[in-house]
Amino acid sequence: MAFMIDIKKNLYDFQLAVKLQSQEEIIGILGASGSGKSMLLRCIAGLVKPDQGQIIINGKTFFDSEKKINISMGARKVGFLFQNYALFPNMTVVQNIGFGLDHLPKNEKKRRIDALMEKYHLGDIGNRYPTQISGGQQQRVALARAVAVEPDILLLDEPFSALDVHLRNHMMKEMAESLKEFTGLTLFVTHNREEAYRLADHIAIFNTGKLEVLGHKDMIFKHPASLETAKITGCKNLVEARRHSDYQLDIPKWGVTMQTTMKIVAESGYMGVRANQVKFINNPEYSGINRFKVYIADESDGPFRTSLYLKIGSPAKSLDDYHLQAEISRDERDRLFDRSQPYEIEINPESVFFVIE
Amino acid sequence: MGFDFSPAWISIKVTLTATAIVFFLGLVIAWLMTNYNGRWKGLIDGILTLPLVLPPTVAGFGILLLIGKNGPIGNFLEIFGVNIIFSWYAAVTAAVVVAFPLMYKTTMGAFEQIDPNILSAARTLGASEVKVFWRVAVPVARPGIAAATALTFARCLGEFGATLMVAGSIPGKTETIPIAIYFATQSGEMQIALIWVLIIFAISLTVLVINNYWESHKKKQQRGLGG
User: Fold this and answer.
1) For the domain with range B6-223, which CATH number is right: 3.30.430.20, 1.10.472.10, 1.10.8.60, 1.10.3720.10?
2) pTM score
3) Under an 8 A CB cutoff, do B121 and A132 touch?
4) How far apart are CA A323 and CA A346, in angstroms?
5) ipTM of the complex
């Protein structure tokens, strides 16, 4: 299994120019809303025609502007799962699943529908309409309908974005299980890094129509290769930095020098460290590297975790006067606040990364 | 001499024929226009909607120019010895022209309300454009289409001005209920006029009410509240 996509398409305010080639089974495409990632899926499905380029899935050419190939949507065999599932409201569950199977003989069609109903646990809701079933069932019906045509590639367009958090986690689990049943390629588009991380092992980062990077999720989250990737993967602390030595960075804005384990080659760029990697030290007697005295400028409490906005070296003059963000549990915050400022933080050199723009 | 019921039969014949024509024509053209986003959209839409806002006499005048003895269509049909003008076909033509914008506009509104993803889903499942239209677009837009059809029926039944101009008022041939009401009133036969008013009132109301109940029944079926 493999695919090769190399397309260009002029959109309203930017150009979609994507080169994506992989043999992985599930790829998560992570990018901000409006970065053109849905458009990419639409081009693959044939809903939108690219201006130029090639789309080859499993050795089958879907589109080739030079050879003037643009095969029909029916011949492409693509399973498309839409954001809101887009079930046909006028048809029952069975009719929805069977919609793409009209070309089959009647008993073969029924056999296939029955097999899918079984596989996706839709046993007794076959005669219900989409409005009469739960969100989880709708998702499974949509998935069953999409894979009914036995596609080579499954395209998922933000399948959880319309859900509330509680339902989202539940559906993600369900989806992960359902995807195991499917043995083709899966391209999964989302603006939510957690979804991407949970569902796919390999992640492609998308930024205004361009592909920043494609790689294993751990690599991408731990050592982002570019500033954009760092931002899209949710790194809160990104600051201009200059090379001091092979394993040291000067941070002029913070007035500190940071140790790294990563070798610094470029002269200038950005240093990044994730908010949850900023650790508070309880016993300041021991000395360590990358330790700084901080004052709290502001805090923002979540139900279980707290974001602290910290200023290094001197007390903050206002709520906006801070250098970096740290994220700790509420318990840790409560223990911390029993003591007096300044607090001491430590940043493990391993969690420090350096990117150029 | 008993009461002459012929205007009722003529009205029903003309209305059903015109509604059927407008139904299919409006449905197809509304769908094509929904999917057409070219630069002529505004102009074409304007032309198709025009009969709704112009006085029916203007529509009648236009039809006369086209299908009259010296009009291009009239001339063409003359070759086959067919003369539409002042026949019930002319009444159908008048009703079609006047009622078409109602069907077209309402249906297009219904088509535009459809979630585009639903249509895309059908296409990615390999459906032809014809299948997308008949199996998805039309059923999904059905409440709007039903309302449009009911309005079209009522408008065709009530058509007066253009019909009078192109079909005249030939008793037993082209005299419809609205025209019968007009001439009965003109000649002071108020009782006859009143009977026709009540009849046309009953037919129109029945059609609109049946449509409403049928739609709410269908809605309940899909929502799982009954049916």
Assistant:
1) 1.10.3720.10
2) 0.80
3) no
4) 14
5) 0.83
